Amino acid sequence: MNIAFRSAALALLPLLLAACGSPTTATASATARTAAPASASPAAAASVGSMGSGSAPIASASAARSEPPFVLLGELHDNPEHHRARAEQLRRLIAQEPRTVVVFEQFSRSEDAAVARARQAAPGDVNAVIDAAKLDRKSWRWPLHQPLFVAALQSGADIRGGNIDRDQVRRIVREGDAAWPADLLALRERTAWNGAQQDALRQDIQDGHCGAMPEAMLPGMVQAQRARDAAMARAMLDAREAGAKRVVLIAGNGHVRRDLAVPVYLQAAGVPSTDIDAVAYLEPGSAAPAGGYDRVERAPAPSREDPCAQFKR
């Protein structure tokens, strides 16, 4: 790959990495429909829910049970119903366990101190928190995620970033292991990972980019995805070790997969499978990978342009 093309690809990195929760990923080549996988946590009820046109999900088995300490709520980034439904779920989880910490994919863990200062200076001010977090409003199509931030702030829960800085991601794509933060590399080294997982993640990334990802970029993109998954797991573990009774992750569906993503790193750190609940938020007719999630919730797709158009320009 020539230098000019590589530079252009790296410039598009924020867009490419956001595909972990994109509609293209949700409708990729997975063939299994949404039955609860045999490998799912026994603590997770076998439930496939649906959400109507309103903001609240239809009552399901999850409403009648107590969730485990680690709850991962996936999303399609551009589906507002997913965000509204998860905001209601988040309020319920925090009411059930006030000592909850919410970890957001949408900003870096390096901004935690700034976010804490903003909350102290302007309690309940969502914009102040977003500014302190340096959230990329354009890339995340703000205010789509606003209901989740409002739910967390109004409930009084602590919030933390789960991602790594964009410059760090670019370095990992280019340099590999040498650019990994030490704590994340240590966690990765403890994590069992085989060729089948490597191939599946590689294909998931390619499918999420409509087959447009240059082959030469894929090894670096897999590294970056694994680093971001490890970072979100590390943020959840740190919150738990600091005293949180429950930690909730808000992230794209690709990051909450049990077989490839954050749960893999949580379990490598010693978290029992039964302490994890991985929930995907999908749309009618979209497939879920076998063994990927404990539960699936669905909401109608919003009106959207061809998700692959951005990769054809």
Task: Provide a descriptive summary of the structure in words.
The structure is a single chain. The protein is an alpha/beta fold and 313 residues long. The protein has a single domain, classed as Rossmann fold. Helix content is 40%, strand content 11%. The chain has a 6-stranded parallel β-sheet with strand order 3-2-4-1-5-6, with helices on both faces. α8 (166-175) packs across α11 and α11 (218-241) crosses α12 (262-268). The radius of gyration is 18 Å and the shape is globular.
Question: Tags for this entry?
Answer:
313 residues; alpha/beta; six-stranded parallel beta sheet; Rossmann fold; 12 helices
Task: Enumerate the strands of the largest sheet in spatial order, edge to edge or round the barrel.
Answer: 3-2-4-1-5-6
Strand content: 5-15%
Give the second-level CATH assignment, the architecture.
Answer: 3-Layer(aba) Sandwich
First and last CA, distance: 18 Å
CATH class category label? Alpha Beta
